[in-house]
Structure formats: C-alpha cells, structure tokens
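Here's what a typical entry looks like (Flavin-containing monooxygenase):
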Amino acid sequence: MYVAGPSSLTSIKSCLDEGMEPTCFESSDDIGGLWRFKEHPDPGRVNIYQSVIINSSKEMMSYSDFPPPAHLPNNMHHPQLLSYLRLYAQTFDLFNVRQRPDFPVSGQWEVFDAVMVCTGHFTQPHLPLNDFPGIEEFEGRYFHSWEYLSAEGLQGKRVVVVGIGNSGGGIAVDASRVAEQVYLSTRKGAWVVSRVGAGGLPGDLVGTSRLDRLVQKLFPSWITMMMEKKLNRTFDHRLYGLQPKHRFFAQIPVVNDDLLGRIISGRVLVKPNIREIKGSSVVWMLWCLPLATTMTFLPSGLLTNGGHCLCLYRHVFPPGLARPSLAVVGFICNLGAINPLAEMQARWATQVFKGLLTLPSQEAMLQAVKRDTSTLQNRFACLERHPLQVDHIPYMDSMAEELGVRPNLLGLLLREPGVGLRVLLGPCTPYQYRLRGPGQWDGARQAILTQWERVAQPFRTRMPPQPESRTRASSSLILTLSVTVLLLTTFYTRHSLSSLPTGLLYKIYSLPEIIWEVEINTMGLLHPLLATILSLIKLSIHTKITRTADLNCFQNVLFSKSRATCDVSVNLASLYSNIFQDRLFIIFGRNKTWKPSRLRGD
C-alpha cells in the first residue's frame, strides 16, 4: 500500500487483523500524511497550514476500536490529531518493520498478492488559470492553497482568496488577522456551519443520529427547510453575501467558527466570481479550489469523466480487473470524518482479498457504479466538480451490511436497551460497527456508553460550584398538592353545580387564578408539553362556556352579573391563549426563558 496517512494506518491494521503481511510504501520520512505539518514541505506533497483545526469532533473521526483519549479537545489542532495517529500505530504495533538495506539500489521487482492505494484525493493542485482573463499580466504572487503555510508575509497586504470551501474560509480568516484587506471571491456561495452545536456541544454530535437520518429520509424537503432557517437565524446568508444557489444538503457546507466575525468587522469582504484581473491593487491571490482527483500511477482505463472521477465499485474496487487485487481506500468525501469511512473500506477490502467475501460480476459492478452515480447526481449539486461525495450513514451501513457488522438495532433495543437507545438516538459514532460480526470488539459497548463522558472531559478545566437543586422533589410536591386542591374543590362543590356539564366546567374554570398559575408552572417544570396540554384544557373550557346559552345564568349565580367579571373572563381567555402559544414556542426552541404573563386589570 502507498502512503502512511490515516487511511493507510487503518488498512495496515485491517491486514494484520486478517493475518496478512502488509508492506507500506511511504514517500516521506514519517507517518501522518496530510496531517503532518512541515514548515518546509516536501516538493510535490500537499501540506496543511499552521492554524488548521479538524472540522470533525474526536468521537466522530476516531477509529472504531480505538476511542480517543478523554483529555484531547473535541476539535483538535492538527498536532493533537497527529499524536492520536501515532498512538494508534504504537498501540497496534503497525510499524514493527525493517527496511531492506538494498532497497534503494537493488532495483528489483517485488511482487504482492494485492495492493491497497491509500493516497487520498488531496494530491494534485487544480489551477484553472484560463478561467481568469488577465492573470498573465498580474504582477503580484499567486499560488494554490496547498502551498499556504501561515499568514507570515501578508502583513499590510491586500489579498484575494478564490473559492469558499473549508480551505478558502479558513485561509481567509487566517490571513485577515494581519492583512490590510482580504477579499473572499465565491462563484456560488456556501452554507456555513459552526463546529459548535446546541448547548456548546460538538456540532457533528447533534442531529446526526440514526433517528435523525430516518426523519430526514422521510421528510427531506421539510428537514432541509428547517436546517436553512436554523442557519439563517444565526446569520442571514443573503445579507452576508454567502447565500448559495443549492439547498443545504446538496453540497458539503463550509465549517468555520470565525468567518462571520471577520465579515462583520470588515476584515473579510465577500465578492462574486472574478470576471477579469486588472491593475495591481492586490498583491497576493490564493486559489482555494478543489484538488484534482487523479492517480497518475494507475492504468488510465480506471479513470472516467475526464480524469476527475474514478470508476470504482462502492468507491473501492475497479470493476475492470480480472481479479479483485486492487483496492482504493479513502478516496471519498462526505459531510463528516473520513477516518471511519476509510476504516470500513479497508475492513471490507481485506475480507475480499482473503476470499471471505466475493464481488459481483464485472457487468453487475459497472451497473452499480452507474446507478450510484445517477443517485448521487440527483442528491448533490456540482457532482462533476466533487465526484467523491457520499452520505455518511447510508454509505457506512451499506458497507457494514455486506461485511456483516451493521448493528442489529431491534436486537439491541430488546436485549440491551441502554446501548440500543444510544445507537438509535445518539450520534452515529464508529464504535457501533464493532458490536458484531468480523472484527467484533469487546470494548465497543463501553465506548458507546462512555462517549459523552469523553466529550465532557476537556471542558472540565474549571468546575463552577453547583447550587443545590431540589427542582424535581419540589415539583412533585407542588404537583401533588395542586392536583389535590383541584380535586377536593370540585368534590365539595359538586352539590351546588348545575346538572349540565357546562356547570362543572365553569366551576373548575372559576378557581382562583393562583391555582391555575401554580398548576401550569408545575407542569412546565416537568415538561413544557404538559404545561401546553393544561393550558389547552383551560382554553378549551373557556371556549365551551362562551358557546353555551346558559353562560349568563352561571355568571349571575357566581359573579352577580358583574360587567367587570365579563371583562375578566375575556381577558382570561386571551391570557391562556398567549400561554398556550408561549408553550409551543418553548417546545420548538423559540422561547427558552418563558415566564407566565400576568393578568392586568383596570
């Protein structure tokens, strides 16, 4: 296999797990691949820039049988991710190998039974200079983002960043800290999401459960609309000049926590696509465009779509080979971490190499590739420019199904409800694919049960004092007392009520306001939905009474036909209608600090 990056490391381990003898060819002097930052990069090798932070949280990007240490931050700086990769290689003894002394000079062929290509798709820069008239007369410096290391040298300069992917957004923010002005040029815009989700939790752990995926599948348009509204409540994409032409789930969004602050402060100005380059007011131009997805060392027959897309069955095996002896691992892109996908591909490929799994016929694989391509074209925008995109959970589950490691959700819910509920309702972490089948890991259940503890651990640098809380106990007491008062009042006044049902309803409705307020507040402490139900009951009672012809009779008996009382009755209806609406706002997250309104009488 080629390159000792994240995909290669898990491929080596998968080979060792199946009793194979892997040999890794690495062009540099260390492991880590893309995630090994070098101040002086090797020629022809892609490099990350100094301030890069991973977009996926540690729980989502970890390998399925190696949870990250609890002390690591949830979104790691690249040296911390490299330390995790080193720890993974050390723990599983992945590089207990010796180099042949004559390897550089022998020139001998070495024959292997199978090859796993793990170079990834960040290999070749893509600079479409012909799309920018006037570039040949540009007097400043221009280069691709893979050559960008830091903002050093940009002090006081005017910089143009072309492209608004994750690299473009990150480099624009990084450069804007020292540059005089940064212009961010985007052709189609982008949806921008934060690494931080609800409650300050990692964003990719919220809303990424199997249940969430099911709801999205059943109601795709509604979920898309809700996601876009949620993002626009954070900031209006149209106002900021970032509104894209595509819908949210049609393309992988930009993950960036700082871009909005740089735009609102004027340090970054969003501009449309460059039409022509004139003059010399700009000193630097950085192209942050997708890297070319090519593999020059592979037979050209494997490439389709003008060299931008590989014809691979399940994004792993070329259908045109006589024997399944070549697998491509990690040549894929998704909204989330690449490590779990590459690991699943490697586990599946080694099973095929050993003959434990068989591939379909060449014709069937070609048809599957066409079918998948058609599905992805309908699913994603600009697939011709980003041909490697897949949906994370569906792709993982389809691979796991063939491998026999897909979690049995129904069985887990029946036999181990604690684990089953976390698999259904919690984030789809990689450990779920070690619960059963080949490569089953005894620690998978514990890893799932403790994943939120590892998420919380890095935050515990300061523990504020916790006030004593008796909310649950006091809520139960108040609920019991208030319900008792309500029932006793109804019981002891039953003889004075009219035989009509409306009389009973009006008697309950006419209880002192404080009882209703305590009741509704008590329900709200237990669950907003309970308070909503009670408020709706109150409103329904009033509606029934106002529609009854005997209302004046009851008002004469109970309130001495007071005009003020009639006004109070109307005000009460308005009050509880508002309460009901407020409770609905609470349920849908629009009003987190609701306090009961007060009736204002004249």
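The chain is about 40% helix and 5% strand.

More examples are in the samples folder.
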